[in-house]
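Deliverable D2.4 — example input (C-alpha cells):
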C-alpha cells in the first residue's frame, strides 16, 4: 500500500474520518482513470462541517485545493455532481434529473 491509500489507512487508524475521506479523494484521482464514484462517496451524506474539514485536510495533506483536483479530473455533469455534493452533501432534484436524462447510473442512497 502506498501514496494516498496509505494515508487513508493511517487516518482511519488515527480516527480522523475527514482526513481519511480527503485521502480517498486523492487516491481516486491517482490512476489512469478517475474513480468518480469514490470521490462522490467521500462527500455524499457528510455534514457541512465534515465536508469543509475534509477539503481543508486535502489542501493540508496534498498542497493543492481539492477543487483544483476535481476540475482537473472531472468535467461536465461529473464535475457538476461533485460540486453539488461538495456544497450540500447530497444531489438536488435538478442534478438527479439531469443524470437520469443522460442515462447515467445514479445510486439512489436516499431511497434506502
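Example output (designed residues):
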Amino acid at each position: 500500500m502506498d501514496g494516498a491509500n496509505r494515508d487513508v489507512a493511517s487516518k482511519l487508524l488515527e480516527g480522523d474520518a475527514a482526513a481519511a475521506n480527503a485521502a480517498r479523494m486523492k487516491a481516486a484521482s491517482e490512476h489512469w482513470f478517475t474513480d468518480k464514484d469514490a470521490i462522490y462517496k467521500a462527500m455524499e451524506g457528510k455534514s457541512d462541517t465534515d465536508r469543509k474539514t475534509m477539503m481543508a485536510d486535502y489542501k493540508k495533506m496534498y498542497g493543492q485545493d481539492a477543487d483544483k483536483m476535481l476540475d482537473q479530473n472531472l468535467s461536465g455533469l461529473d464535475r457538476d455532481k461533485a460540486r453539488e455534493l461538495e456544497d450540500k452533501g447530497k444531489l438536488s432534484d435538478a442534478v438527479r434529473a439531469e443524470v437520469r436524462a443522460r442515462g447515467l447510473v445514479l445510486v439512489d442512497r436516499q431511497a434506502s
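The helical segments are 3-14, 17-28, 36-43, 48-62, 66-73, 76-88, 93-101.
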